[in-house]
Write a structure and sequence with these properties.
About 25% of the residues lie in helices and about 25% in strands. By secondary structure, it is α+β, with helices and mostly antiparallel strands.
Length: about 450
């Protein structure tokens, strides 16, 4: 089932018992964030705050904070979430341009623009202000193509937000191209409240210029409808709840942005002289829903999406030269810098895994800090099984090696100011002479008891 919009997905979540409505008024400053944190700890449902202080617009959060909700979003079996997502993400479906759209039922230009009407959330106590954490930034360039991603955006004024690009972002390349061209401004569209396939696609990292809307089409098995913006040259999801049509003047207006509680679980410092964008128009549905993503100490929903999307990107990069790779996963607890790779045990040859682990260094912009290889009897989405493999199949002097002083993520607080960090690689596959024999029922017996499960009185 393809969800054309956020509301349809919320309906599905509610029918599946995965959405909780909060009727009492909540404060977008810290209270919503604290509720989200509690829901992460308890593995609770998605939540719709129907009455938010200071705004007439409801807020939804925790949309994809479990693998079950990810599977519901993609209408697939949770047990085959990686395989189904991998297959669909490779079947690109171009977006379809439409003439009119629900996202433009209400249009506000220039002086009518007032971001204070939105229920902007300050998730954590040390955040420098409200952040648009679920703003899907859309960029378009005649040479580079398209970019859809979630970038860091902090409220500045009723018609301005800071937009943070760093050199590893595709958005940085779009900005530099506009500057080289001598453009007066960089057009920037921001979509808030999109269908789950667009949200998931925004977290893929394909080659620069690839259109993530095509990935979204593949994920949902149906083209994404897009519509032209009213004031800038860009196409946006037609069924988004809210659209901000913006531009970054060149050179940009600047100011101090942050601090901000990041996806890695730590609060980053204030950024001096960050670029700002001006909102030229706001368009939205007559009754929009605002999407907030809580970021902070794991687990949280961003990491569940990245676990799949970053794993798939690593799989694509490695599978070409190492056919033994069966799957890859970036566990949420590893805050997008830990990777677990599953190997086809029958194709594992002496020394191959060490080469594979070394090759993983160049995948995903060299962001990985810890990479573990396991056999195909290990469920790489189950940290207990991965830990078991490390404890029982690894001899540290033989199977662990460290690369000192590699480029990593600046958001890792143990790295230096440039993101330089040591990297650890663990071969947790069975080696020649391994003496263990796994103790568990046969596959046939497991299938038998599965078929009788309800007869035993279990749910």
């Amino acid at each position: 089932m393809a969800f054309d919009n956020l509301a349809d997905f919320l309906k599905q979540l509610e029918e599946a018992g995965e959405l909780h409505r909060v009727a009492m008024e909540v404060d977008p400053k810290h209270e919503i964030g604290a509720i989200c944190r509690k829901l992460n700890i308890t593995k609770g449902p998605a939540v719709l705050f129907e009455k938010v202080k200071g705004s007439k617009i409801p807020v939804v959060s925790q949309l994809l904070a479990t693998n079950r909700r990810l599977a519901l979003a993609l209408d697939c079996d949770e047990k085959n979430l990686f395989g189904d997502t991998l297959a669909r993400s490779g079947q690109l479906i171009p977006p379809r341009l439409v003439e009119s759209a629900p996202c433009q039922e209400v249009v506000k230009h220039s002086k009518e623009v007032n971001l204070d009407e939105l229920p902007l959330v300050t998730n954590n106590p040390d955040d420098g202000g409200p952040y648009l954490t679920a703003g899907h930034v859309i960029l378009k360039d005649a040479e580079l193509g398209y970019n859809l991603a979630i970038y860091r955006m902090m409220y500045r004024s009723r018609n301005e937000v800071y937009l943070r690009f760093i050199p590893s972002h595709h958005g940085w390349a779009f900005l530099k191209k506009a500057e080289q061209r001598g453009s007066a401004a960089l057009p920037v569209a921001v979509a808030i409240g999109v269908d789950p396939a667009i949200y998931i696609a925004s977290q893929f990292e394909p080659r620069i210029g690839a259109n993530e809307m095509e990935i979204a089409g593949g994920l949902r098995n149906k083209a994404v409808d897009v519509v032209k913006c009213k004031t800038i040259d860009c196409e946006v999801p037609a069924h988004a709840e809210i659209i901000l049509e913006c531009e970054m003047k060149l050179p940009p207006n600047r100011g101090d942005e942050g601090p901000f509680g990041e996806f890695c679980g730590y609060t980053t410092d204030m950024v001096k002289n960050e670029s700002a964008i001006t909102v030229k128009a706001v368009t939205h549905k007559k009754k929009p829903i605002y999407h907030n993503i809580w970021l902070g100490k794991p687990p949280h929903e961003h990491l569940f999406i990245n676990a799949i999307s970053y794993g798939i990107q690593a799989y694509y990069d490695l599978k070409v030269r190492y056919p033994a790779v069966k799957a890859a996963y970036a566990p949420p607890s590893g805050v997008s810098i830990k990777l677990v790779i599953q190997i086809d045990e029958k194709m594992n040859t002496p020394g191959m895994v060490k080469n594979l682990l070394a090759a993983s260094l160049w995948t995903r912009g060299a962001m990985w800090k810890e990479v573990i290889a396991v056999d195909d009897d290990i469920d790489i989405t189950n940290s207990d099984e991965v830990d078991w493999a490390v404890v029982t199949r690894v001899q540290p002097t033989r199977d662990i090696f460290i690369v000192p002083g590699g480029q990593g993520s600046r958001l890792d607080p143990s790295s230096d100011a440039y993101g330089v960090t040591d990297k650890i690689f663990i071969d947790a596959t069975k080696k020649r002479g391994f003496r263990g024999r796994v103790a568990e029922p046969t596959k046939a017996m497991m299938e038998k008891i599965e078929s009788r499960w309800r007869k035993y009185g279990f749910q």
